[in-house]
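Practice problem 4.
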């Protein structure tokens, strides 16, 4: 257990919320860029511009925000003591966050496929993929705020 003062906890919580919002923005936007990219002709100006946008979004915003979300989240959880780790709402939330991280990793693979002009998926696939982070976010927020069990 990490002991931190109430003021420090609030700062960690604020930084966690900021990083989660930044991460979610990227998780919701990157698949939308993939939709446009899947519709673009390989080698076109549009395709090349989307490659740059996707790389910058993933490397400069999403990955640092994901790392910060995990760091601040673990600090908060550790400061709450060992009992929180077995609370059913927290376990479900943690599973959803792991799934969100897996979605992030999968998007990184898809970005690389686009960068190398190897995408084989349709724009419809990416439209569906765009919904996954939304569903996970809803579950996470309900677990944290409502704590239904």
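Answer key:
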């Amino acid at each position: 257990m990490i002991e931190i003062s109430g003021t420090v906890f609030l700062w960690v919580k604020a930084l966690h919320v900021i990083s989660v919002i930044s991460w979610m923005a990227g998780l919701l936007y990157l698949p939308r860029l993939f939709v446009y990219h899947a519709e673009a002709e390989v080698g076109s100006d549009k395709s090349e511009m989307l490659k740059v946008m996707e790389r910058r979004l993933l490397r400069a915003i999403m990955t640092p925000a994901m790392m910060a979300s995990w760091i601040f989240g673990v600090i908060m959880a550790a400061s709450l003591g060992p009992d929180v780790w077995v609370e059913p709402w927290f376990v479900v939330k943690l599973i959803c966050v792991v799934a969100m991280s897996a979605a992030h990793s999968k998007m990184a693979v898809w970005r690389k496929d686009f960068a190398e002009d190897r995408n084989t998926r349709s724009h419809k696939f990416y439209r569906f993929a765009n919904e996954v982070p939304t569903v996970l976010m809803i579950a996470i927020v309900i677990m944290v705020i409502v704590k239904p069990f």
